[in-house]
TrEMBL record:
Residues 112-191 form the Beta-ketoacyl-[acyl-carrier-protein] synthase III N-terminal domain. The lineage of its organism: Eukaryota, Rhodophyta, Florideophyceae, Rhodymeniophycidae, Ceramiales. Catalyzes the condensation reaction of fatty acid synthesis by the addition to an acyl acceptor of two carbons from malonyl-ACP. Catalyzes the first condensation reaction which initiates fatty acid synthesis and may therefore play a role in governing the total rate of fatty acid production. Possesses both acetoacetyl-ACP synthase and acetyl transacylase activities. Its substrate specificity determines the biosynthesis of branched-chain and/or straight-chain of fatty acids. Pfam families: ACP_syn_III, ACP_syn_III_C. It comes from Osmundea sinicola. The active site is at 118, 260, 290. PANTHER family: 3-OXOACYL-[ACYL-CARRIER-PROTEIN] SYNTHASE (PTHR43091), BETA-KETOACYL-[ACYL-CARRIER-PROTEIN] SYNTHASE III, CHLOROPLASTIC (PTHR43091:SF1). It catalyses: malonyl-[ACP] + acetyl-CoA + H(+) = 3-oxobutanoyl-[ACP] + CO2 + CoA. Belongs to the thiolase-like superfamily. FabH family. This is Beta-ketoacyl-[acyl-carrier-protein] synthase III. Its main location: plastid. Its EC number is 2.3.1.180. Pathway: Lipid metabolism; fatty acid biosynthesis. Homodimer.
C-alpha cells in the first residue's frame, strides 16, 4: 500500500487482436443446417474470427492486444504492476496470465486470471481499479480474451453460430481523484440459473479403483438461448438504471452504450427499454460474433480508432453472461494520451 488518499483511475490506452481466419454465415451453413438469413435476423452476426493453427492459444491473441495497447503510449512493459486476464478459456487451468507476463516482458508485474465468462472484462476492470484507488498499484493491464471456438460443439447450430475468438486490452493508470474516469459500478450474480449457460465439467461413471476418486473432463458449451436472452433483456437495463441513479444521472446523460456484444437484438432491446437512441449503441458484433470477455475491450478499441468517443463523454458499459453474472460501469471518458 503506497498511499492513504483515494486515487482516481484513468484509461490510458486500449488495444485489440483478432485472428486472421474469418468464417461467414454462408460458410457455417456448410457445417450445420442454418442460413445467413436465419443467423443475421436472429443475431445480427455476419461473420466471426477463429483462431486456427497448431498450438495457437489465447496467449497469442492476448499478447498482440497487450503490445498494441502498450505501443500506443510507448509504455515499457516493465512499468506494469499488475496483469489481470479475464478469460474462461485459458490454456492451463492454473491460469494463463503468467505466460502473458513472461512473453511481453512485464518483469515487475504480478499476473492472475479472473473467470466470469462474458462479464469477465467488466469485473476485471473494476477489480483493477480497486488496486489503483487504494494506492497499491499505478499501472495495470487488464485483458479480456477468449477462444470459445475451442469449446463450441461444431455440430450444435444453436451455439456454434454465435461465438468468435478475440482479445482486447486496456491500460489503467492512477491519477488525481478529480480526474477519475470510473464513476460507479453495479454487479450482480444469480447462480440459480448457472445451468442456462455453461461449459460443464462431467465426471466419469467409474471411480478410481483404489481411491474412490471420480475424474472427468470439460464438455462443450451448453446454452438455453431463450432463457439467456430473456435474462439479458430484463436484467441489464435494471443494472444500468441502478448504477446511474446512484450518481444522480439519468439515461439522458449517456453518450455511448457499450454492451457485451452478444446479439444485436439484445443490444437494441436494452437500448429501447432505456429510451436510448440506437445511434448511441457501440456495436461491432456483425464482424466478430460474441467474443465473450474480449467483446467489450475489442469494441471500445475500435470505437476509439473510429474517433467516436470524445473527451468527457459518458460511456455506460455493461457485461452479462454465464454465472449468471451481470453488471454495469459508468465511465467519464478522458482523451487517451497517445504518444
Ligand atoms: N439455424 C436455423 N435454425 C435454428 C438455428 C440455426 N442456427 N438454431 C436454432 N434453430 C431453430 C431451432 O431448432 C428451433 O426450431 P424448431 O422451432 O423447429 O424447434 C427454432 O430455430 C427456434 O429456436 P430457438 O432456440 O427458440 O430460437 P431463438 O429465437 O431463441 O434464437 C438464439 C436462438 C440463440 C439466437 C437466441 O435465443 C439468443 O440470441 N439467445 C441469447 C444467446 C446469447 O446471447 N448468449 C450469450 C450470452 S453471453
Amino acid at each position: 500500500m503506497k498511499s492513504s488518499t483515494k486515487q482516481g483511475v484513468k484509461i490510458l490506452s486500449t488495444g485489440s487482436a483478432v485472428p486472421h481466419m474469418s468464417l461467414n454465415n454462408n460458410q457455417i451453413s456448410d457445417i450445420v443446417e442454418t442460413s445467413d438469413d436465419w443467423i443475421s435476423t436472429r443475431t445480427g452476426i455476419k461473420e466471426r474470427r477463429l483462431l486456427t493453427g497448431e498450438q495457437k492459444s489465447i496467449i497469442d491473441l492476448a499478447i498482440v492486444a497487450s503490445r498494441n495497447a502498450l505501443d500506443k503510449i510507448s509504455m515499457n512493459p516493465s512499468e506494469i504492476d499488475l496483469i489481470l486476464l479475464a478469460t474462461s478459456t485459458p490454456n492451463d487451468l492454473f491460469g494463463s496470465a503468467s505466460q502473458i507476463q513472461y512473453k511481453i516482458g512485464a518483469i515487475n508485474a504480478v499476473a492472475f486470471d479472473l473467470t466470469a465468462a462474458c462479464s469477465g472484462f467488466v469485473l476485471g476492470l473494476v477489480t483493477a481499479s480497486q488496486f489503483i484507488q487504494t494506492g497499491s498499484y499505478n499501472n495495470i493491464l487488464v485483458i479480456g480474451a477468449d477462444v470459445l471456438s475451442k469449446w463450441v460443439d461444431w455440430s450444435d447450430r444453436g451455439t456454434c453460430i454465435l461465438f468468435g475468438d478475440a482479445a482486447g486490452a486496456v491500460i489503467l493508470q492512477s491519477c488525481p481523484y478529480v480526474d477519475n474516469s470510473i464513476l460507479n459500478f453495479q454487479f450482480n450474480t444469480d447462480g440459480t440459473y448457472a445451468s442456462h449457460l455453461s461449459i460443464p465439467y462431467k465426471e466419469s461413471h467409474q471411480p478410481h479403483v483404489l481411491l474412490n476418486i471420480y475424474q472427468g473432463s470439460f464438455h462443450p458449451i451448453y446454452m438455453n438461448g431463450r432463457e439467456v436472452y430473456k435474462f439479458a433483456v430484463s436484467q441489464v437495463p435494471l443494472s444500468i438504471v441502478k448504477c446511474l441513479n446512484a450518481l444522480n444521472m439519468s439515461t439522458d446523460d449517456i453518450n455511448w452504450l457499450l454492451l457485451h456484444q452478444a446479439n444485436e437484438r439484445i443490444l437494441n432491446a436494452v437500448a429501447d427499454k432505456l429510451s436510448i437512441d440506437n445511434h448511441k449503441i457501440i456495436a461491432n458484433l456483425s464482424k466478430y460474433g460474441n467474443t465473450s470477455a474480449a467483446s467489450i475491450p475489442l469494441a471500445l478499441d475500435e470505437a476509439l480508432e473510429e474517433k467516436k468517443i470524445s473527451d468527457n463523454d459518458i460511456v455506460v458499459i455493461a457485461g452479462f453472461g454465464a454465472g449468471l453474472t451481470w453488471g454495469t460501469i459508468v465511465v467519464r471518458w478522458k482523451e487517451l494520451q497517445l504518444a
